[in-house]
Structure formats: structure tokens, C-alpha cells
Amino acid sequence: MKKSTFGPWLAMILGAAYFLIPLIGTLEFSMRMKRGEYSFEAYKVVLGDPRFQESFSYSVVLALVTIAIGVLLVVPTAYWVQLRLPKLRPVVEFVTLLPLVIPAIVIVFGYLRMYNSQSWLPLTDSRRGTDLLLAFGYVTLALPYMYRSVDTGLRAIDVRTLTEAAESLGAGWATILFKVIFPNIRSAILSGAFLTFAIVIGEFTFAALLDRPAFGPYLQLVGANRAYEPAALAIIAFVVTWACMGLIQVFGAARGTGSKS
Amino acid sequence: MSFIDIHGLKKSFGPVTVVHDFHLAVERGEFVSFLGPSGCGKTTILRMIAGFETATAGSIAIDGKQVAHLPPAKRDVGMVFQAYALFPNMTVAQNIAFGLRVAKKSAAEIRTRVGEMLDLIKLPDLGDRYPYQLSGGQQQRVALARAIAVKPQVLLLDEPLSALDAKIRVSLREEIRALQKDLGITTIFVTHDQEEALSMSDRIVVLNEGRAEQVGSPFEVYNFPRTRFVASFVGTLNLMTAVVVDAAAGRLTLDGRDVATAKPIVGRRAGDTVTVALRPEAVNLGDGTARSDTLPGVVEDVAFLGAVVRIRVRLDAQTVTLDTFNQPSVALPKQGEAVKLTFAREDLLVLDGDA
Q: Residue B31, Cβ neighbours under 10 Å: how many?
């Protein structure tokens, strides 16, 4: 007997409608800036706004710094845990999950309390110091995603044997990490990096409370004061995030074909 | 002094000791195999020599230099792993060149050496391939080339053939042995495959539960196993119990029949029960000579194995298996037929330990 496909199709259509209708609505609204015709006027206004360029550039730079710090922190940690301290894995996993359960506002108030101008390390005293604090905050925020991504990459290769093979050929730790481990988990690192990028680009709480000119607070500012531009910005942010997801898929697929033996 | 000197080596993981008081002296250029079942400690000893495990007690000296405290990178020891362990992000040539680059050799020197190694492993045209583009046998040859490219003092092979199929295993073991002889490199080979150990080694160390049961040439280990474990692990063997009648004269009774060994039975007295061993190929059908013993029995089973026919004969209470070459012109005994088994006294071995 032929099974009815009505149910699955209905579920799929409902699901797609749930996600796509608001998106299409936002897109449609963002194109109605000129009366009586569809245009990309709102996008032109947004992209031509110097504050957009500044805040977007600021967030991109901060995202790159966050990725660099995150990779240098997470890869050696995950590598060491896998190689020498496998019993510590649950503890490390728990720690990396904490940013998901502790609200960002709690973390940032903690930072302000710890690193204010009266503290022993007054990072908030200068703009550069605050930028650094913001980058550290973003590293924390992205930790669950970066750690999981890198850990999955490390599990896909035989870390112990590759390390021992390199050691027996005279390699030290730096050579092993940068010549053997990093290149073999490159796609996993890139996946983590794109997720981090997507998080940093849209982040609001940290940047607003630390009073830094990032893209998130700019989104909020425009959203509170303009009509069509916020919709255009939402679509732009969406495209950036989706581009990151697409790149993760591309590099994920590359890893899949590259690991054949 | 030997080239590799291992003295009183011990390894414990928490309360469990996996290697007990292990001693071994390996001469320069020798090929020594560690043979034993899974969990016997053979790989742990190899990893202690390589520096991947720290010994709980004991010393390891290579060419007179104590290495037990050195990290693996400083031991000048090449290692080949069961899982190949080629770096997936590097080509064959880059893999072979890795150790040379780490040693900061010149580009010209690296190029020459990589070319030599590719020729040596008979893969001169595959330098630009990636590991995943090679077969298992080719990958293991590259791993071997990578290990010896840096000219280590000692080559350690950790079950390098286990992941390969039977045919490639045989050809590669011959290649490894030929290469080892050519280069004269001192080699320690870990395997659980007795045929590999017997065919490749100058000496075999048979390990059981973290202890060396016997160290000897393949001929000695196969023909004169010292313990019941060695006898049962290396080759097929008939193990039977017998009672000592006259230890000095080497006389025993086996299932009520008088038999004798060629040598006196050391450390035993009349009346002691001992384990005796006989290789299936050392037993023949028919009457013996003055230097051999004969036992009557009944054929229980005849198994045709191609070139060899395996016949199981029941004595009084024990059974003996014998192997005979398949000769179409000679009729085989039938099941239930009364036969006489004969064997040379030199072939009847009294094993150490309790029966």
C-alpha cells in the first residue's frame, strides 16, 4: 500500500512558512522605502551610512581578534585534554558550556566589576583596554561553539599516533601543533571561526554595556529611530550569518572527502 | 656491552603491573621480535624504548647511553606504527622529509634523501601523492621510509603488518627484512603473529603476562620451547602429561608406555608428573628405530589440509596429532584403524613448570 506523503509535506510547508514568511515580510518591507515602487533605497542608505561602515568594520576586526585568541586558546587546550588528560574532558566540556547558561549581562557586569578603573587591572580605563576586554568577552561567548568544533576535528584524526610519529622524528611541541595538528583540523577550526564571526557580528549586550561602537548597538540604534533601514540591516545581518553557515558546510564537506584513506 | 641494554624494566599502571623485571641485550644490527598475545606487554616495552611510556623501574641504554630519562625526540629512535600514522596534510615526499626538516637539513640534502628513500621503497613516482591516495601496503612502506630517512640508531616496528591483508603482509615482511639487512639497522619488531616472528627475526622474545618466557633464535624457540606457554603459543604442539621414571636417564612413562628423552630431565625426580611436548611434524606412522620410541594408538580423525594431512590418534588416555605430507601414492590410515606412532627421542621435550 502506498504511504500518504500529505503529513510530511504539511509539516514541511508549515515549518518553511514559519521561517520564511517573517523573512519575506522583512525583505518586502525593506524595499518599500520609495513610495509606490520597490527599490533598494534602504540598503543604499544603510550601506552609505559612515556609522554602518565604522561599526561593521569594528565588529569584523573584533571578530578576527576573537577568532585568533579563541583558536590559540582552544586548540592547545582541546589537544592537551585529548592527548594527556582525557579524564578532564567532562570538566572542560562543562566549563565551555557555562557561557550558554550564564546570561551575557551577568558576565559583562562581572567584567566591569573585575576590570574597572578601581581594580588591579583597570582595562576599562582606556579604549584599547576595553576593546581587549570585549574581545575576551567574545572569546568566552564563542567558547562552546569553538571548543566543540575543534574537539570534533581532533576526534576525527588519530591525535596520539600522529603526535608520537612526529615526536619520534625529533619534532618539538610547537612543530607538532603548527605543522601536524593545526593543518589536519583546519576545516574544524574554520567551522568554529565562522560561528564565532556570526556571533560577534550580531552581539549587542557586551558591546553596549562596555560602550563600544560595534555593529550590534548600531543595529539597535537604527532600529529605534528609523523605519525601513532596520529591516534592510536585518536582511544584511542575515546574509552575513548565512554566508558563514554556507562556508561551514563547504569546509565541512571538504573535510569529509579529505579524510578518506 | 650490547648495543641496546634493557635492565630490570618494570611498568605499572596504578596497581596493575604490566611488565615485570624485563631484561634484554640486543646486538648492533640485530633483528629482534617481541612475540606474544594481546596484553602480554610487548607494545608497552617497545613504547618505553621509544620514550612514549615512562618506565616505573629499570634502565634502557642505547649504544652505552642511558635514554630512559630522555623525551622521544632525543632518543634517535625511528618508529613505525600499526596505523601508519602518516601526516594526512602532507604528500608522500613531505612525509619522508618531515624528520629531515625538523633536523634542519639543507634543501638539497632533503631532496636527495627523499629520492633515495622513494627508490628504496620502490615508489619513485608517488612522491606527490597524499596518503589517502595510497593503498595500505604503500602507506606502510612510506611510513618505513619516513622512519629510516633520518638514519635513526634503532628502528622500532609496532605491529606494522597487522592492518594489511595476508598477501601484502607476506611480501612486505620480506621487504622489511631485506631492507633491515641492507641498512644493518638494529630493529625491534612487535607482533602477535608467530609466522612473522619466525620468518623475520634473528632472535625472538616470547612474552606472556609481562614476562619474557623465552629468548632465542627462531629455531630454538620453535624446536625447543622451554615453557608450556611458549610451546602452545609458537606453532602447533602436542602437550601431554608423563611421569618421570629415571630423571638422569631421561626415562618416563606416557599413558603407561615407556618413553625416553635424549637428555637427562633436570630438576625432576622419579614419580614427578611433567608436561611433555611433541611437534606434529616430528611424529611418524610405523615402527621406529633404536633411537626412537613407539606408541600404539587408534586413528580418531584424518583431516586433509592440501599439502599436509593431519591425523589425530588416541593413545590410552591422551591424544596425539601428527602431520604428514600428502603423497597420493601412499594410502592414508582409516578412522578406527590401529596404528603405531614413532618419534625420535630428541623430539620429545620436557617443559619447565608444573604439569
A: 21
